[in-house]
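Internal ticket #5521
Category: modeling
Description: The requester needs a full-assembly model to guide mutagenesis choices. All entity lines are attached below as received. Residue total reported by intake: 795.
Assigned to: D.W.
Attached entities:
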Amino acid sequence: MSEQRDFSAFVRHNPDGASSLELAVEGVACAGCLNKIESRLKAIPGIADARLNFTTKRLVVAWRDPSFDPARVIDAIDALGYRSQPFSIADNEQSEAAAARFLMRCLGVAGFAAMNIMLLSVSVWSGNVTDITPETRDLFHWLSALIALPAAAYAGQPFFKSAWQALSARRVNMDVPISLGIVLALGMSVVETAQHAQHAYFDSAIMLIFFLLCGRYADHAVRRRTRAAAGNLAALKAITAHRFAENGDLVMLPASALRAGDRILVRPGERIAADSIVITGSSEIDEGLVTGESMPRRVALSAQVYAGTVNMTSALTLKVTAAGEDTLLQEIDRLLDRAVTAKSQYVRLADRAAGYYAPVVHTTAALTLAGWLLGGASMHDAVMVAISVLIITCPCALALAIPAVQVVAANRLFRSGIFLNSGDAIERLADADTAIFDKTGTLTLPEPHVLNAGQIAPDLLERAARLALGTRHPLAAALAKHANVQTPYDDIVETPGSGIRTVVDGIEMRLGRPEFCGVRDETVAAATLQDPRASVLAFRNGDRHAVFTIGQSLRPDAAAALKSIAGLGLDIKILSGDRPKAVAAIARSVGVSDWKGGLKPGEKVAILDTLKASGRKVLMIGDGINDAPALAAASVSLSPICAADLSQAHADGVFLGETLKPVREAIVTARRARTLMRQNLSLAVVYNALALPLAVAGLVTPLIAALAMSGSSMIVMLNSLRLGVARQDCAKTISERVQPARIARTA
Amino acid sequence: VTVILYLLPMALGLGLAGLFAFLWALRANQYEDMDGAALRPLSDDDLR
């Protein structure tokens, strides 16, 4: 198929004159794939460089010749059997990459400083109990200062900045006591060194920075990886459009490059790329993703159609209108604005802990100072003891307690095919006590399925499916997919709007509308008795015939998954935009008694608001554009990967695959993570509580401080890793872990 | 005691060398594709 394609929207022009294109590649699994793709692309004349990043499954291709057609790259990858899709990196992904590099540099500096200062400190500690001369000790302390001060100034930036931001907003976060601890420890050590004292805390301050940076970097890396994977999936399911050029030629281009006023062609089975109005043709449109309605809508001249809907029966020419011109989408936009601003600012567990912790510690330090002064100690000694209280209670373990668990939990969810957008989604997920499901596309599969396959002779089904491979019509595609056939028949003739036919072994076969296949109305009526809302596809093979009913079917594990989620103590409700009769049938078959149908987007949000007002923490699971406001308004939300972009953007997480099992998995993991977070917080507090009396009594030496800090940080990190260790419900999923990847490839 | 005078600068120098090597590797994008780097030696395009 030689079709013009226009990828100029994705091409980047580098300052050195070369152009480059970034692509998400699907199906890369081994060194062989990597090598095959790179060497094949480099063999194309004109390509200067091709490099596949195996971690992110992204490929960067660069060329110098301005006349080079990037479509050749995609064809070459296609010919090797991989699917690829160009995309432009989101701005936030780029700034995140820069932030990750900065954290890594800080980590390097802190690591270097920590090692070298420790070297000097261990010498001083052992010297102090043997025969170190005061001059040597001073030298070692000054050297430590020389390393520690610039290193802390550089590597401590992430904490200082965050603490400063919190303070200027008149809040306290965990970074405030951390920064205070670091600054005081360094300042006091310099003063002490100048007075030839025995103890300096350079090592403690730098170790603290190093440990905290480890936690922060891991947290950052996991979130970046999740986002990159989600970005690839989004790119691979990105919608393309066929636009009429000035001269009448048809050019394929990404939907994001469409402008208002463009004329586009949408063939049957294709997704409509932009909000537009019909200028020629008439067809049926599946609007499940937009309104939740499961019945196709008939459209004709000057009808409004929405982006994300699927053209079902015949080709349409559309004129693109500017987004948001229409009342439905405007309404959704308005609701979204309100939901996003009204979303009560969730206070994270870590910040709540910091809110309690900081005042307690600072008061203790002040009381210690006062106590020692009253007890007759010199100002110098009293200040020293007070500062050592601040250093020993510096919440190293507290600050690691939650991010460490988040990293392990996000990693585990990633492996089971759940990508979380935000770190605190885990905490909110664990708190959820009500689960609200959308119907169309969430409880049911996003694509139509053959419903009555069991009642049709297998040989007839197979032949019909092979014939169905000859067209892109969505109903035929459902049939072909159901029978899992690969070889199409030859010489297929398509009659637009009616069906397709071919002749095999002298016998004619027809697939399409009942009248096209000579199937009588009574036969059709008999077949649709069971599913009156299903679409019908007829098949004739010589004198035999069959009627397939094709419609929405439940996700394979919907009933079981809902039951097991209810078993976790969540109330389950179904809220749908589809008409009540359709919702009732689905609700009955999954065993949910609490449902509402025919809801407008605003009504969904209103129900959520009432629930929230009565103190419920609502988990919303939905996919349609009509669910986006509800997803934003819920306390936590998930979307299947087939969801509309707008919905995915407002959900806290996205899950892969055809089943609803990931929802349960997410809740279970989040709850275990919350338990571990609380355990970690208590561990850290107990640790500090043990060290505090020593500090108040003035017994803390740098050696004790170093042990206390590293020890508590280690314990907290090791405790977090327990989440990754398989338990009984986790062992089951190991065999299924491979599945999300496979489904992602076929999705 | 004089041993300190050259051992200390040596230790620091080695540490700094390590730090600069790390920063250089970071700048050269060597940490961008940790999984791919493990696979690249397996490709035998020098034999073709």
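Resolution: model delivered.
Comment from assignee: The first helix of chain A runs from residue 31 to 42.
Ticket closed.
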